[in-house]
Structures are given as structure tokens and as C-alpha cells.
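Re-run with default settings, no changes from the original entry. Doing this only to confirm the output is reproducible before filing.
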Amino acid sequence: MSPRSTVFVIDDDEDVRQSLRWLFESVSMPVEVFGSAAEFFGDPGCEGPGCLVLDVRMPEMDGLELLEVLRTHRIGLPVIMISGHADVPMAVKAMQSGAVDFIQKPVNHQDLLQRVRKALAADERFRAEIGDPRIIAERLEQLTAKEREVLEAIVNGRTNKAIAGSLDLSVRTVETHRANLMRKLEVHSTADLVRLTLACRLRS
């Protein structure tokens, strides 16, 4: 883990924020806590490196809405979502929108630390892998026009079924395009696919 990597915590509950601050500080992890999405976006260091630990249920802008804004702002931090009211559709939506993990409250601190360490290591590795823009350009040039359309839809959080409907394709064809572009871009998850695309846009 890079010394510069920071754990960013967003939760409207002050007790939770302080508890998580103490947890990460107890293992010497740099941590910044925020009570809202607006506070987070006002921090100049919010673009990483590091990871984001994010509560789903918050006033003004909830966690799922924040994932959408992260894409709009082209911030590619890995996101771990936490919810006390989780259900399967919510978890699926979070992962489709680029979250790398989804945890239900009450949170086991040791489990959270393990997941955060994993996210930080993945972020460090990912940043190292995308460090050369020439390599990114070479990978993107391998994509067909249709694969680029599918990629854009994936980054916008659309399901295979929704992509198939909008592009007048079968779901099986979308799945094939999705598999091909992930192979060409050398990623193994939707989260990394979204983050790679965001990184490319930041460099353009």
C-alpha cells in the first residue's frame, strides 16, 4: 500500500465517522472523513489514490446517486458500499455502477479492514498498470465501434438487457461484446472496466 493512499469515509452519522476514523488510524492508514457528498467533493484530495468507504443511506445525495456523480466527475476511486438496509437489487445496482464491494451493517471491523486493504492494493496495482497512456490507447484501438457503444453503456451503469434494447441487439450478442472488450482491455470485473474508462477520459 502506498503511503499516499487514503481511505475516504462518507457517512452522515458522526459516531460512525469517528469510529471508522479510529479504526483506520489504529492500523496507521491515512483516513479522511466527510459527513456528506458535498464535503467530499470539496476536498482537493478526493481523486485519490486510495479508496472510498460510502454509506448508502444519506440525506441530500445517497450512496447510489454519489456513484453516478463520481462517474460524471471522472473520479475512479474504488468504492466499498455500506448499508444497514441492503437488499439484493441494491447490491446489484451498486456493483453495476462500479462499486468493488458491498457490506451490510453491523460492520465487522476486521472484515472491513481486510476489504479496504484489498481495495487499496487493487487501486495501487491499477494505477501502476494504467500509468502509460500509450498502452491504454493501444488497447482502446482494438475495440470495434459496437464494442465502444457497449462500453459506454456499461460505464453509464446499464444492464445487458437495457443495452440490448437500446442497441437493437440480443442479450447474448451484448454478452459477447462485453466479454471481448474486457479481454481486449485486460480487465476482469465491471468495476475495473469502469475505472479504466474513467482513467482514459482523464488523460484525454
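Residues 102 and 142 are 32 Å apart (CA to CA). Residues 109-129 form the longest helix (21 residues).
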